[in-house]
Amino acid sequence: MKDKLESLRKEFTKEIQAVANSLDVEALEVKYLGKKGPVQQLMKFLKDATPEERPKLGKSINDLKIEFSEKINEKLSAFQNKEWEKQLEEEKIDVTIPGRRRFPGAKHLVNKVLDEVIDILIEMGFSVQYGPEIDTDYYNFKALNFAPNHPAMDMQDTFYITDDVLLRTHTSNIQTRFMEGHKPPIRIIAPGRAYRNEDVNARSHVFFHQVEALYVDKGVNFSDLISTMEKFVQELFDPSIEMKFRPSYFPFVEPGMEVDIRCLVCEGVGCPVCKHTGWLEVAGAGMVHPEVLKNGGIDPEEFSGYAWGMGIERLVMLKYGIKDIRIFTENDQRFLRQFV
Ligand code: DAH
């Protein structure tokens, strides 16, 4: 019996030294200490032992069982610790690594400047109105005193939806519309998009933003227009900004003019943005034509007014030294993120 115990111990010791991981140890536990294992089998011999031998023998078997069990537990916890460490090492999260920044999105540069423009004009006493982007040729052209065969009304310049419905070519479509429903004093701005069927190049696009202004009251005159525009441009850029007013023709104003700003992209030296003139046209303006006032139901004998339409993209290009209008619509994140 003693020999049996001894050889079992030897066999077990050899095997437990050879195990490679906790699974092997668990298998060994089943093999030696399981119900059908050799230790349990030894118990059967107890009944053949003499009554004096039996307690001693029983104790030896039990001791062996405890010994095996201790060794197994020892090995098992050693392996388990190692395996845990390995797993932890593999799944390690380095909380000190800087996170990847998520870009939360932001206002487009054009809208940002548009908001600035609106804020300045609100402070100067204008209220904000919005005209429709899809409108009739009446409000876009006829009511604004365009002659029936005016070239601007040509299919080549205007996106028509039907014979008399179109994408507005300017924000001036608000003028008659608003006058029809409101009595002077009128002091509004109308920001928004306008569309032209034009070739796309560095300076012009098929759609762009404008801010229209309309001021109608008793005694409104040309110097009100000039001083308001000057004040606005100084607020948006800098008090030292250089402006130029050139006589020009628009059917809905008399007299009419174009407003230029010294090109800030090239500091007036000349560049593709200003067509090498050193100046950039940013607005059309003038005194509201009596016919337009009449179309809006306002008596030109009693009231006068001024109006302007300003190109927002041009202002943004000047403000930020941007040389190509197309970049605003290309959705290039590298460009857009610079202005967050
Ligand atoms: N609507 C004109 C354009 O888009 C600009 C303009 C000129 C607007 C004179 C005005 C104005 O209100 O009085 O070219």
Helix count from the secondary structure assignment: 11
- Structural class, please? alpha+beta
Radius of gyration, in Å, reads 44 Å
Helix proportion range: 40-55%
Describe the structure.
By secondary structure, this protein is α+β, with helices and mostly antiparallel strands. It has 2 domains: 2-90; 109-339, 2-Layer Sandwich (BirA Bifunctional Protein, domain 2). It is built from 11 helices and 9 strands. The chain has helices at residues 2-18, 22-33, 38-45, 53-90, 109-123, 137-140, 174-181, 222-236, 290-295, 312-320, 333-336, and strands at residues 127-128, 134-136, 165-167, 186-195, 207-217, 243-248, 253-262, 279-288, 304-311. The strands form 2 sheets. A 7-stranded mixed sheet has the order 1-4-5-9-8-7-6, with helices on both faces. The protein starts with a helix and ends with a helix. The structure holds 3,4-dihydroxyphenylalanine.
SSE arrangement:
Blueprint: H1 2-18, H2 22-33, H3 38-45, H4 53-90, H5 109-123, E1 127-128, E2 134-136, H6 137-140, E3 165-167, H7 174-181, E4 186-195, E5 207-217, H8 222-236, E6 243-248, E7 253-262, E8 279-288, H9 290-295, E9 304-311, H10 312-320, H11 333-336
Parallel strand pairs: 1-4
Antiparallel strand pairs: 2-3, 4-5, 5-9, 6-7, 7-8, 8-9
Helix pairs in contact: 1-4, 2-4, 5-10
The structure holds 3,4-dihydroxyphenylalanine (DAH).
The site of 3,4-dihydroxyphenylalanine has 12 residues, from strand 7, strand 8 and strand 9.
